[in-house]
Design a protein that fits this description.
It is a single chain. With 209 residues, the chain is mostly beta strands. It contains one helix and 13 strands; from the N terminus they run ββββββββββββαβ. Strands 1-2-3-4-5-6-7-8-9-10-11-12 form a twelve-stranded antiparallel β-barrel. This is Protein LURP-one-related 12. It comes from Citrus sinensis.
């Protein structure tokens, strides 16, 4: 699948005709309600994720919702799994429902890329490379074309690099933005806050127009 060919996984309304920058806000772990809110360039709420309780770093299941609370996608940790495998389900997962994709570390040793396998289309696969902890990684399709990127955000008015709890998810034309955000949820769980910051990690911040 080329980066400009639409492949609907969640809903066609999240297939954008041009590159789209979504601003992702991750709520602080010190608040009771820990999750995400995602806005488009017009400041409109696009996605949200709500999770509750003190054990937010060890969630088994997370649900991506639209602005109105409709369940779009569920990601669930598969246990046991040496590669920290997660599986994705359409809508709100029900017992017996088959997953539509899986996400796993490519290696159980050290830092590694992340592999995304599509169950309904075995030839379709994605690789996520980079350092999510630094908010600097890219999602590539099987032809090594970039379909989405995660980058630090720079405030356009002050040119100040914002904290890691606010970052950009840039979605290329034809790639499902809801699917991309579902992958962000998994990345946050498997290696987000567990990474140790490296002085050698390069961060390419993005200033939103």
């Amino acid at each position: 699948m080329k980066a400009d060919q639409a492949a609907v996984l969640v809903a066609d309304e999240y297939i954008y005709k041009q590159e789209t920058h979504l601003t992702v806000f991750k709520t602080s772990l010190f608040f009771q309600n820990d999750g995400f809110t995602v806005y488009n360039c017009r400041g409109e709420l696009v996605f949200r994720v709500d999770s509750y309780g003190p054990d937010t770093r060890d969630k088994v299941e997370l649900v991506l919702m639209d602005a109105h609370g409709k369940c779009l996608l569920t990601v669930r940790r598969k246990r046991p799994s040496l590669h920290n495998r997660w599986e994705g389900y359409s809508g709100e997962r029900t017992d017996g429902q088959k997953p539509i994709f899986s996400v796993r570390r490519s290696s159980i040793i050290g830092r590694s890329s992340v592999t995304v396998e599509m169950y309904e289309n075995p030839g379709e696969e994605y690789q996520i490379e980079g350092n999510f902890w630094q908010r600097s990684c890219t999602i590539f399709n099987a032809m090594k074309e970039s379909v989405a990127e995660i980058r630090r955000k720079v405030d356009a008015s002050t040119q100040v690099l914002l904290g890691k709890d606010v970052f950009l998810l840039s979605v290329k034309p034809g790639f499902d933005g809801a699917f991309a955000m579902g992958l962000v949820l998994v990345l946050d769980q498997i290696n987000g806050d567990n990474y140790v910051e490296s002085n050698g990690g390069r961060v390419d911040p993005v200033t939103e127009d």
